[in-house]
């Protein structure tokens, strides 16, 4: 994994709430009274190259990729709380709307398909209709450019997202939906992997595809939609979906979600990742209709929606706590960088409360973090960095400063800690003790956002 220095980026434009009339985008109720309002999107991001396995792990600590840029938001400072969301077929309760979309689609592509038993709904018919249809087919292929795909992309962006046609270029399409951080071998895949994705072989024991993929939808041999997906070891991640506005009546966005859920189920991928969930953004709410779980980054636990839904209201930050449990009121939660399922967590079957305010609305916790920063600066030569790459003392869901200090004090981290860095195009090993103060601070930032183990394994690009 080759990773550039994490940047701390704050932008006044936010794609999620841009059109929103709402002016209450605070993480905490207490911020509402103490800060002047300033709506902005705040992220930590790096340019990186990594394998699907590595991306899988990053995604499960809150990252998403856009091309080869990976980012996660600062849940305390950003206007919209972006939560990682995942689901699977058994967690998805098909709604009336889902059934309508499926029935309409089946009628379009395979009107002769025998009807379901009276008053029942059978998702299996969606699969059958695709097999039998003479009008509709999809093709899985490596994420690459073609003029046909670009034309559809442009039509979609201009019509649905009101992009200026001048701005929608071949280059932007390639950068956004073709360019990936994955190794060539995974991008290309092999014929066995793509054969395994053919509908007819879904029921067999297949070699699974791992890699970035375009699923192209054709109706009467015309390209009408493209689903951009990453096949990863723990599941299938939906990146983007483009559809031809002339076929709006088919609700292809919703349909593709259901189709992919069914595919995950049949092929044996555990999870379907729908990207980031923004409770506040009406455009994103459809994601919750697929059911599933959302990631509490601070506890590193996936919670079923119905357990934490009340805490998500108004787009506030939630950090789950178990009622009756006492929490150390001076510290942020410890982090290890590997989330677990709700059922395996201490929260299983406990009554939950939201402790976000106790931690991030608590002056003591903030002061403690500031004191720790000073100690790291003075005793361990970890100076402040310039604003572009400097991380705040508190960011929910990254390793807290007190934990870093604790590692220094207990010898988990010391001057012998070694990282691989890319210098003048060559990888070399460098110990913390041999670095300048600035480089040491940068390495500490890598550790805070990616974890100790990942940092020691990755290749760091300083420029
Ligand atoms: Zn926003």
UniProtKB/TrEMBL annotation:
Signal peptide start-end: none
Annotated InterPro entries: Acyl_CoA_acyltransferase, N-end_Aminoacyl_Trfase, N-end_Aminoacyl_Trfase_C, N-end_Aminoacyl_Trfase_N
Keyword Zinc in record: no
UniProt entry tagged with the keyword Ligase: no
EC number(s) reported in the record: 2.3.2.8
GO cellular component: cytoplasm
GO function terms (MF aspect): arginyl-tRNA--protein transferase activity
Occurrences of domain N-end aminoacyl transferase N-terminal (ranges): 12-100
UniProt keyword terms in alphabetical order: Acyltransferase, Transferase
Pfam families membership: ATE_C, ATE_N
Highest taxon above the source species: Eukaryota
UniProt cross-references to SUPFAM superfamilies, sorted A to Z: Acyl-CoA N-acyltransferases (Nat)
Protein name as it appears in the record: arginyltransferase
Organism: Candida maltosa (strain Xu316)
